[in-house]
Amino acid sequence: MSSFKDFSFAGKKALIRVDFNVPLNDAFEITDDNRMRATIPTITKILKDGGSVILMSHLGRPKDGPTEKYSLKHIVAHLSKLLNVEVQFANDCIGAEAMVKAAALQAGQVLLLENLRFYKEEEKGDIAFAEKLSKLGDVFVNDAFGTAHRAHASTAIIAQFFSPANRTFGWVMEGEVLSAEKVMHAAQKPFVAIIGGAKVSDKILIIENLLERATDIIIGGGMAYTFFKAQGGKIGKSIHEDDRMPLALEILAKAKAKGVHIHLPVDNVVADDFSNTANTQTCASGEIPDGWEGLDVGEKSREQFAKVILASKTILWNGPMGVFEMENFQAGTKAIAVAVAEATQNGAFSLVGGGDSVSAVNQFGFNDKVSYVSTGGGAMLEYFEGKTLPGIAAIKG
Ligand code: AMP
Questions:
Q1: Ligand 1 centre and the CA of 186: distance in Å?
Q2: Quick check: 260 and 211 in contact, CB under 8 A?
């Protein structure tokens, strides 16, 4: 598959699926434009090549067709400013207005279509709806990694109406796919996966998939307490899932059989209340007194985890080591960020993806110190679980 940068858009109308699902306040002002900014280089490259651009996106979750609150017209002015181009708008994503405006586009011009989800056909992956959309452009560009795990009309179904030579990933999507593939299919060993977060049940599929690929798996955060309880340890009132205890033991046994090293915390910062002002102490794992709960990994664990990370050539990080939203319980997650940054500087490839570890890395200012920070929460999680993402498969064919 050729790279987006080698694709020439001269004289072409590029129909781009973007993710402009940005938060708006009550005055319809954009409160976080990161998703828009991410796609600007893709759009600019096409315009510079001498192409024109038709943008399609969803916004929010409209239930009953067109709704003022979810109209993409609210973002036109800001998009024009970001692109330094007067962006045109079509009040519908299919139909006469969209067709006429798309047909009249000249090189260097940009048209934004109204919210795709004003049609229930979008999320249903309706083929006739996808075909109507496809008529608007000569080339289909998918730059919406955040929806790559959905087989929607504009993210996957539409691709069949373009020949392989006329469909491609945009820069956002390409960056996400290449990073994810590097970790999951071409990882240099040692490969450590750092898995944290609240629940084993949310991460079980990822861990099972990683048992086939990683050399080391660090398990931290709330999910570690299910493992300790399953092994007969005392966990006080720490978060845990009784019904997942057999699964936790199964993971440990499978890892042993496969020669994958599982690293659980050896000590924990425990608190007498789920609060930043709670009393705290450090306890060895499996020895947490009644009435106390583990809210972060302890100092010895941080040192051990850092050693494993610094010895690795490939690093995947999903999920915090503790309740990092509270200042007194963020040291464990911060220590991981520091170690991942150092390992990256030493030449390791590091990917941070899926949910709260991304927030943590951004919050601590480490986003430019790791190799790649994924923007696609749910999509990246499903990729790590080993699932085929319809948005990727449709472009690759
Ligand atoms: P996830 O979305 O599964 O990655 O989980 C992230 C959430 O897990 C964050 O909101 C953390 O505050 C929470 N978390 C991490 N460690 C703990 C813990 N020891 N006890 C309770 N919640 C935790």
A1: 30
A2: yes
What is the per-residue DSSP string for 166-204? GEEE-HHHHHHHHHHHHHHHSPPSSEEEEE-SS-HHHHH
Which pLDDT tens digit goes with each residue over 224-280?
999 999 999 999 999 999 999 999 999 999 999 999 999 999 999 999 999 999 999
The fold for domain 4-173 equals Rossmann fold (3.40.50)
Which residue's alpha carbon is at the smallest distance from atom 5 of ligand 1? 197
33 CB near ligand 1 (under 6 Å): no
Give the mean pLDDT of the chain. 96
pTM exceeds 0.70 for this model:
yes
Determine the distance from the C-alpha atom of residue 212 to the mean position of all C-alpha atoms in its chain, rounded to a whole number. 22
| Ranges in the chain annotated CATH 3.40.50.1260 | 4-173, 187-384
Ligand 1 mean position, distance from CA 111 (Å): 42
**Coil, strand, or helix at residue 163?**
coil
> 92: Cβ below 6 Å to ligand 1?
no
Whole-number Å distance, alpha carbon 176 to ligand 1 midpoint, is 25
For ligand 1, atom 20, which residue shows the shortest CA distance? 222
Residues 6 or more apart in contact with residue 381 via CB below 8 angstroms: 206, 318, 353, 354, 355
CATH 3.40.50.1370 fits domain 187-384: no
